[in-house]
Structure formats: structure tokens, C-alpha cells
Write the C-alpha cells for this entry.
Amino acid sequence: MLDNIIEFKHVVKEYTVGENKLKAVDNISFDIKQGEFVVILGPSGAEKSTLLNLLGGMDFATSGEIIVDGKNIVKAPMNPKEVLSSVGLSSHENQFPTQLSDALDSETGIVILTLLQKMSQEKNKGNHCK
């Protein structure tokens, strides 16, 4: 049986706007097993970028746990420059997340998916769809 490489456990991400709290991510739980190839789909405004920022360690969760390779990264964000460089978007490092998601046109998305699939195959992790 494959081990979980990523686990989201009851993850919440809230933003405070004036006196109101906006839940961008509301109690999400899922796991990804080592070697699985996962695609996140949804309409504009579905908070795909927020989810990816949390997963990439570039943003903090309000609560819950995000376990990546056995380490809880909820309060330990990764270096954004390294993350952007690894997916070929280093020239966009001075943009806000909403502007960054605009840089993910279909051509760039295909490049990123191809890169991720290649990395998965090179590490002999298999290739499963979820």
C-alpha cells in the first residue's frame, strides 16, 4: 500500500476583511498517496490558488494540519522564490497571488502538468490519477 505524501486535515483558511471573516478554505480534508498525479479543477473564484498556496507552503492555514512528507507545514511556509522557480514562474515573484493565477494560462498549465508528471516518473513514484 502506498503511503500518504500529502495530508490535509480539517484545513481552514480565513481572511479578515474589515469586521468580517471570509472563509476561503472551509474544513477541507484529503490525502494524496506517494506517486499519485492529482489535478485541482474548478471555476474562477473557487480558491484553487489559495489551496495551492497552502500546499506549497507559501501561505498559512488558520487551523488544521497540512502534512507534507511527514512534516506539518501549517506554520512553516517555504521559500516562495524556490517554489516559483521550480515551476518556471520565477519572473513573476513580485506579483500578488491573484495576479499570479492570471499567469497560469492554458499553455503554462500544460507546461506545469508536464513538469510534474515528468518529476513523478523520474522518481519512480508511479503515475496514478485521482
In short: The chain has one domain: 4-129. The chain has a mean pLDDT of 78.
